[in-house]
Amino acid sequence: MTQTLQNVAHEVLEKQRLLNHPFYQRWERGELASHEMTSYAEQYRYFEKMLPDFLHELADQLPTGSARSAVESNLHDEVSTPSHVELFEKFAAHYGATNADISPAMRNLLQAYRDVLDRGPVSGLAGLLAYELQGAEIANSKANGLARHFAATDEALEFWKCHGSLEADHAQWTLDALDSLDFEVSDVTDGMDRVASAWWLFLDERELLKVA
Questions:
Q1: Looking at residues 51-74, what average pLDDT do you find?
Q2: What distances in angstroms separate CA 191 from CA 147, 153, 158, 183, 187, one per listed residue?
Q3: pTM attached to this predicted model
């Protein structure tokens, strides 16, 4: 069944692969203005702070067993010292992030994670998977772009390098967790699409800043 899940997941993401978005392509080419990087950090911070709570609630929805253990392992990686929030703040500080108000697209993204969680553990895991299947590749691409084009220090890169090494495991754990549950394929596709679409819209919002 895992192969079936992988096929379903890749089909959902085919038209929403984040590294194909113009914003990330400009990141890779070193074409982002400084205010774009600052604003990105200010908004992404909201997602990073939300994620541990999401994982904790998702774990609570699952019975004792392999699926719950997989989510708890993911959560452990998020909050272990130094936590991913702490690592992210090093990146954010390097690019001058302030305590900006949440943007409409980030608010929609956080609501997408809330929505899939409210639909139950299958939908919650599917929503989690939508980003994690892409996470390692995205993190490595960001780190390479930051190092080549944006004068990133080792501290500023640490968050992305950490995710580049962990996200493949997180994606596999989430696939295995889904595989251990009874589910309808439609619940998986709907959960993934809700989150993947929200991420795409967030990057659309980021693109609007290039003319600011």
A1: 97
A2: 34, 36, 30, 12, 6
A3: 0.96
Domains contained in the chain, number: 1
| Distance from the Cα of residue 106 to its chain's centroid | 12
% of the chain beyond a pLDDT of 90: 92
Task: Look up the domain containing 91 and give its range.
Answer: 2-211
> What's the chain look like in SS3?
CHHHHHHHHHHHHCCCCHHHCHHHHHHHHCCCCHHHHHHHHHHHHHHHHHHHHHHHHHHHHCCCCHHHHHHHHHHHHHHCCCCHHHHHHHHHHHCCCCCCCCCHHHHHHHHHHHHHHHCCHHHHHHHHHHHHHHHHHHHHHHHHHHHHHCCCCHHHHHHHHHHHHHHHHHHHHHHHHHHCCCCCHHHHHHHHHHHHHHHHHHHHHHHHHHHC
Domain harbouring 51, CATH code = 1.20.910.10
What distance in Å separates the CA atoms of residue 12 and residue 69, rounded to the nearest whole number? Answer: 26
Residues 150-174 have pLDDT tens digits of: 999 999 999 999 999 999 999 999 9
* Count of residues making up the chain: 212
The C-alpha atoms of residue 72 and residue 34 are separated, in whole angstroms, by: 37
pLDDT higher than threshold 70 for residue 53? yes
Max Cα-Cα span within the chain:
50
Q: Closest by alpha carbon to 46, among 137, 141, 114? A: 114
